[in-house]
Structures are given as structure tokens and as C-alpha cells.
């Protein structure tokens, strides 16, 4: 099923606006959090300003993926934006920290509903080549929105105030709602979601190879973004301002890999190449020389930028229409859950008592091993032909 040109534009507008606002709200309050906990006199709840949002947006992805398959993408998208707008308005008013955290949790319900609705709508409405390009563009939009969040939140915090800052996502959410008429209506419920990635049959109702690969990509990508600044400042002696400039090659690498995924989706070599680049890049980042480190994180960025959109494409290409949202949602859940569990685990290197050099070397070496594991999983589960019984 494909959309007419007019409906396709509305579909892509709603999808882009929805994913942009979800990504931006992940990082918007990062710079504002110290001011928030000070103003509301709750420093002990510092971590929950971000945590309440992330927990809801991650844990509710699987059930909302099922609701999308049963109720249709349009209804779930509207419900998601309704939660987002409600949470946003409550946050801008909340006079106490418990109320703000409750509002932040309501806000987190929005992306949990918006993400599977958007991904399923693209899978149901676009042909394979158009879908590949659309997913790569969405990934770039998410990256840009994540990058815009911290400086935008900092500007509001130092200027008009963080309460006005949380309202910046309202226009995008309203645009998505206005364009929601282009989303497909309900599809009838069916049986199990059965996917075949490069010939390997997986039962998608539970964790499968695609979910594990998405989890690995989440650990590697978010781990690199989280700990690369620490490595630059402690291991290579770079100041905070210069660190921001030195991270640009990695972010451009992620963007380049994401853009390339939309062009090389039909190619069988693209998937393993992504994991190889991630492995090689993380291994180079473990070296003490600054130039080698920068080359490494750039290659790592290209690799992870290439991998995730292709995982989504593989899930959608082989899922039945009545299980499109569940297929997409489980891949996205795997990425989020992998990042949520992997980042604290990687911090064990930092608190191990080792000096900064050995600790960060071990951390990036661990990322290289995880990327190699992803390659092995793909070759053994996704790159082999299905045995017929």
C-alpha cells in the first residue's frame, strides 16, 4: 500500500515533527536540571528528571506497539501527542518536584506511542525504496533534534526560564497532529509476527536477533557519545570548548552513515560493513594518540549510523502488515533498553579504580568487542539462509 503524493508529504511531515519533538525532549532539560532541582529544593531527585522520562518512554514501547497494530497508527499517534502536550503543560506549571516528575512521566508516554505509530505508518504506506530514504531522514532529524536540545535548553534556562523552554515542542506536536489524517487507519489483528532477515526466521513476539542487534547498537552509539567527551578531556587534555568541536566528526559520521543507509539498503554488504566499521572505530579510539582517537570515533559514528536504520528496514520488510508496529517497536525498544542498561555497565570501567588511561582504553575496547559480537550475530543469524524443515 502506497500513499498519493499529497498524503505522502503530510505523512512525512507528521512523522518528522513527531520524531523531532520526541528526540529534542530527551536532551532539552540537560543543562536546566541543576537549576530545576535547586529551584524546587530536591537535589536528591536530580537523576529522575531525565530518568522518569526515559523509563516511561522505553518500558511502554512494547505495549504501545501492540496497541498500534490493533487500533491503527492514527489513533495511537493522536493519543501520544495528547500525552505529550498534557505532560508539557503540566511541567511548565509544576510547583513541586513530585508533580514535575509525574508530568515528566506523562510526557514520556508520548514518545512511547509516537515512535511505533510513525514507524508503522511509514512501513504500511511507502514502498521499500521510499521507506529506506524516509527512515534515514528520520534518523538524521532525530540526531539534529538531540543536538539542538542542550543549547536550546541552556539558552532558555539563562534567559526566559526553563518553564518556557519546555513549551518549545508544542508547535511541532501541533503540526504532527494536523498532518495525522495522512496516517493509515486500523489494521486487523493477526497471528505471530514472523520476520525473516536475510533468510533467518525469527519469532518477533519475543526477543530475537534483531532486538539483540538493536540493543548492541544502542550500547555502542550512546556509549561512544557519553564517554568520548570524558576521554577527550581526561586522556587527551582537551578543554570543554574544544571537546565540543572535536565531537563534530563523530556526529557527522553518524549522519553520513544514516544518510548512506537509505541509499544502500538493498545491498547485502551494508549490514556487516556497519558492524565492521563500528568495531574498527572503537578499537582505534582505545589508542592514546589524539589523531587516532578522532579517526576512531568518526568511523564508529559511520558504523552505528548505518546499522540502526537497516535493522528497522529489515524488520519492516518482512513483517506482516498487522504486525508492522510491533516489529518496528521491538527494534526501537531493543536500542533504548540496550543503552539504558549498557551505559551504567560501562561506567564500571570508570569506577574500577584504574587510572584514566587504562579505564578508558578498556571501555572503548569493550565497545569494539560488542561491535564484533554484533557482526557475529548478524553472520550467524541474519546472514545465513534459512534451513527448510
Account of the protein in words:
- This protein has about 400 residues and is an all-alpha fold.
- It folds into two domains: about 5-180, Growth Hormone, Chain: A (Up-down Bundle), CATH 1.20.1250.20; about 195-380, Growth Hormone, Chain: A.
- About 75% of the residues lie in helices and about 0% in strands.
- The chain has 16 helices and two strands.
- It has helices spanning about 5-25, 35-40, 45-60, 60-70, 75-95, 95-125, 130-160, 160-165, 170-180, 210-235, 240-245, 250-265, 270-285, 290-320, 325-350, 355-380; strands at about 195, 200-205.
- Strands 1-2 form a two-stranded antiparallel sheet.
- The longest helix has about 30 residues, at about 130-160.
- The radius of gyration is 20 Å and the shape is globular.
- Residues about 190-205 and about 385-389 have low confidence and may be disordered.
